[in-house]
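Retry 2 of 3 after timeout on previous attempt. Resubmitting structure tokens to design endpoint.
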């Protein structure tokens, strides 16, 4: 009997080894490159990217084990090294004196403006367990920051867009490029990272142009701010404290939020529910809603700016509870004039 078990184990092990050896990595990687329209200049570059691809798929397998309700695998970032991904697609620069609960700023929205509740209730009824501001038409389409660590500027700009829509009734695509190009020397560093509340400070002083007037160029433009094209003005900004309950209360009553999170493992995310995360804050996004609030299956819905190829059409689901990815630590919003 023991001999039979040993033989069966050897057969299974041999099959697994054969499967691993038989895997045609070059063919697989060629299909990957074709799918994402990637081109490599020579064989050395191809082989280097293939090495990163193999490592990323190994990492994705480990992440699938840690996140049984999510799917990790090949994405548009799978041919990048960890260092390349972090330097080009993350970019939050956490100030050393920034309070953990993000309760700062000089703007307080003590009571919801009637338009906030009106838009929300017309779109969803009175269900407090499920809500996403996507349903209310206050979000522009998913953006793509490209290989520029400008997430901080996009997170702030998207939040200004949403609050402008809620305040004035018009949804306008605003200029992230203006913030990236022109907000320098304030603790923000263009494609090398920054912080949303400092972007709000810049917009308070200068105003924000439309994307049509000042289009996105992946941080490759000199500052060409023109006050004649400004559409958005800010009266201030503030943070939201109170942990995840505070996030829920704000989103339930006011609108979406800018949040900065720990996202170093997000490059391989394909979809599903994230339940595990690291703890180093390095990326800023927009928190748009929640589902199943008050239950064990509650989750946040997050809008990223890595294009619609990534995640669930550019969005992610993240489990509520435990302050996953530091989601409640750095939540902010602007006061649109």
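Retry 2 succeeded. Sequence:
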């Amino acid at each position: 009997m023991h001999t039979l078990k040993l033989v069966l184990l050897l057969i299974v092990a041999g099959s697994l080894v054969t499967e691993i050896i038989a895997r045609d990595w070059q063919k697989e990687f060629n299909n990957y490159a074709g799918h994402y329209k990637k081109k490599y200049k020579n064989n050395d570059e191809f082989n280097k990217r293939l090495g990163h691809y193999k490592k990323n798929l190994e990492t994705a397998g480990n992440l699938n084990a840690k996140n049984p309700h999510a799917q990790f695998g090949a994405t548009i970032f799978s041919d990048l090294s960890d260092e390349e991904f972090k330097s080009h697609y993350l970019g939050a620069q956490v100030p050393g004196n920034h309070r953990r609960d993000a309760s700062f700023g000089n703007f307080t929205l003590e009571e919801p403006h009637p338009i906030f509740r009106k838009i929300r209730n017309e779109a969803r009824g009175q269900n407090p367990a499920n809500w996403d501001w996507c349903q209310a038409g206050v979000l522009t389409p998913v953006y793509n920051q490209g290989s520029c660590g400008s997430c901080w500027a996009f997170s702030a700009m998207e939040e200004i867009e949403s609050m402008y829509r809620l305040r004035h009734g018009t949804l306008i695509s605003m200029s992230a490029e203006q913030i990236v190009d022109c907000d320098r020397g304030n603790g923000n560093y263009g494609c090398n990272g920054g912080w949303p509340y400092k972007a709000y400070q810049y917009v308070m002083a200068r105003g924000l142009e439309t994307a049509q007037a000042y289009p996105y160029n992946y941080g490759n433009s000199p500052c060409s701010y023109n006050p004649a094209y400004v559409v958005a003005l800010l009266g201030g900004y503030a943070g939201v404290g109170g942990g995840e309950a505070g996030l829920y209360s704000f989103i339930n009553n006011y609108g979406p939020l800018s949040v900065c999170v720990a996202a170093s493992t997000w490059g391989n995310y394909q979809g599903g529910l994230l339940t595990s995360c690291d703890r180093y804050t390095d990326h800023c996004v927009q928190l748009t809603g929640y589902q199943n609030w008050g239950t064990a299956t509650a989750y946040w819905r997050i809008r990223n700016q890595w294009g619609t190829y990534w995640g669930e059409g550019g969005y992610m689901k993240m489990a509520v509870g435990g302050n996953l990815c530091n989601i409640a630590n750095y939540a902010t919003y602007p006061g649109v004039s």
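Attempt log closed. The chain has two domains: 1-25, 89-336.
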